[in-house]
Amino acid sequence: MADIQPTIALCHELLKPGGVFIFSTSCIARASMFLKWLLPIGGKLGLIPQAQIFDNDYLNGAMACAGFEIAMSESLNKTGRTGFLFAKK
């Protein structure tokens, strides 16, 4: 998706009170420069889906900004490039 924050806000709006949002994604802000350069260009050319470059801290902040209570947030690998988040409305 081109911009993750409106999507997260919509998910919060659609959930019932007490609902949960489980999210896993690649956080490529720590990826190689080549990958950080290639993904946005490939997305703009329509060769691959659009990618937004962010890290786990940005994702947690976007979730909190939308009104979610973060119950758990972890990196699923040593590189910190795969985030897993469990949040409640």
| First-residue to last-residue Cα separation | 22 Å
Oligomer: single chain
Instruction: Give the radius of gyration.
Output: 14 Å
Q: Main beta sheet: strand number and arrangement? A: 3 strands, antiparallel
Shape: globular
* Number of distinct beta strands: 3
Helix and strand layout, with pairings?
Blueprint: H1 4-14, E1 20-26, H2 33-44, H3 56-65, E2 69-75, E3 82-88
Antiparallel strand pairs: 1-3, 2-3
InterPro entries: SAM-dependent_MTases_sf
Account of the protein in words:
The protein is α+β, with helices and mostly antiparallel strands. It has one domain (4-88). The protein has helices at residues 4-14, 33-44, 56-65, and strands spanning 20-26, 69-75, 82-88. It has a three-stranded antiparallel sheet, with helices on one face. Strand 2 and strand 3 (82-88) form a beta hairpin.
Describe this protein with a few key phrases:
single chain; 89 residues; alpha+beta; three-stranded antiparallel β-sheet; 3 helices; 3 strands; SAM-dependent_MTases_sf
Summarize the structure.
By secondary structure, the protein is an alpha+beta fold.
